[in-house]
Design brief:
The chain is of the alpha/beta class. The longest helix has 30 residues. It is about 50% helix and about 10% strand. It has a five-stranded mixed β-sheet with strand order 2-3-1-4-5, with helices on both faces. β4, α9 and β5 form a beta-alpha-beta unit. The protein has ten helices and five strands. It is elongated. The mean pLDDT is about 95. The two termini are about 25 Å apart. The protein folds into two domains: about 140 residues, Four Helix Bundle (Hemerythrin (Met), subunit A) (Up-down Bundle), CATH 1.20.120; about 150 residues, 3-Layer(aba) Sandwich (Rossmann fold). Bound molecules: guanosine-5'-triphosphate (GTP) and magnesium ion (MG). The site of guanosine-5'-triphosphate has 23 residues, from α7. Guanosine-5'-triphosphate binds next to α7.
């Protein structure tokens, strides 16, 4: 499973140089030559360990499960991440080359103080060139942290038009409390909760952003997150219709979802306290009416 929590904080160029040169400044030696060589060895170790640590902390993005791969590609772009990691690799090789050359020059009899000063200058210039990539990798950690870690427990994905009451339902029945508001597009990312059943069993429930009835290529990034859950994570879809709103586009969206995703779709009405339509199961997150029946239906379909 993919966990962004495991990605380390990434230093800026300035911080990284402070770390390497700061560590080297504490290193001594009996002669100027020995001191310079010791300092170069220290800078070499600090930088190499640091770059390797950052590069190794990233998974092989191409081999992640489809859901994570496509989600990461959607929110940041896997090519962008690879570019940043390649830049670190480059800086790693360049700085080691500079250090090796300086060591050879000192051993060949050049003035150790001058060689060291010039090596420091060149190392700084390399690291400063990747400052933007270092900052990107640090920001990346925060972006990726918003992608929830999913389990492989039986999963119901809640979908429907904006503002129909998806988050209200998920908040009512599960451990997660997504934001609820009286305007559409409140939910902007996916929220994962768990419905606790008897004997420690659980159902994973995912609240998704509202979907409009429009073709996939016209969907924005927020809607595409919902689509990825439907496509890769759902064992069953709970499609919520709010009959107090225009039904036609909601029915069209439902048809599209049934056509495109190969899992059972449970269709229900929300806001039962506001209307009398009962040709489908109806529930209210306000009064609690019908909630148990919807849960029962989800359990039947998921066979838990
Ligand atoms: N009367 C009544 N209002 C409800 C019920 N469920 C939700 N609402 C209201 O409907 C509005 C939208 O609720 P949300 O749960 O945020 O809807 P959503 O489908 O998650 O909306 P998006 O995230 O924007 O797609 C809020 O003002 C809720 O208080 C219900 O059962 N009865
Ligand atoms: Mg919502």
């Amino acid at each position: 499973m993919f966990e962004a929590k495991k990605l380390p904080t990434v230093l800026t160029a300035e911080e990284l140089l402070d770390k390497a040169f700061g560590r080297a400044s504490k290193v001594g030696g009996r002669t100027p030559r020995e001191r310079a060589l010791n300092k170069l060895a220290t800078v070499s170790n600090v930088l190499r360990d640091y770059f390797n640590k950052i590069i190794k902390s990233h998974p092989s993005y191409d081999n992640l499960p489809d859901f994570y791969k496509e989600m990461i590609d959607l929110v940041v772009g896997i090519r962008r991440i690879k570019k940043a990691l390649a830049a670190l690799n480059w800086a790693n090789e360049m700085t080691q080359k500079i250090i090796n050359k300086a060591v050879r020059e000192i051993k060949g009899g050049k003035n150790p103080v001058q060689v060291l000063r010039s090596a420091y200058g060149r190392i700084s210039s390399i690291i400063e060139q990747i400052d933007e990539e270092l900052r990107f990798l640090n920001e990346l950690k925060k972006t990726l942290r918003e992608i929830p870690a999913l389990t492989d427990e039986p999963t119901v994905v809640v979908a429907g038009y904006p503002n129909v009451g998806k988050s209200s339902f998920v908040a009512k029945v599960s451990t997660v409390k997504p934001e609820i508001a009286s305007y559409p597009f409140t939910t902007k990312s996916i929220h994962v909760g768990y419905i606790e059943l008897e004997r420690g069993k659980r159902i994973q429930i995912i609240d998704t952003p509202g979907l409009l009835d429009r073709p996939l290529e016209k969907r924005n990034e927020i809607e595409r997150k919902a689509i990825l859950c439907l496509k890769h994570v759902a064992n069953c879809i709970l499609f919520i219709i709010d009959p107090t709103m225009d039904l036609k586009p909601q029915m069209k969206l439902l048809e599209e979802i049934k056509e495109n995703f190969d899992v059972p779709v449970i269709v229900v009405y929300s806001k039962a306290d506001l209307h009398d339509k009962r040709d489908l199961p109806a529930f209210s997150s306000v009064t609690g009416e019908g909630i148990e029946d919807v849960l029962k239906r989800i359990r039947e379909v998921l066979k838990v």
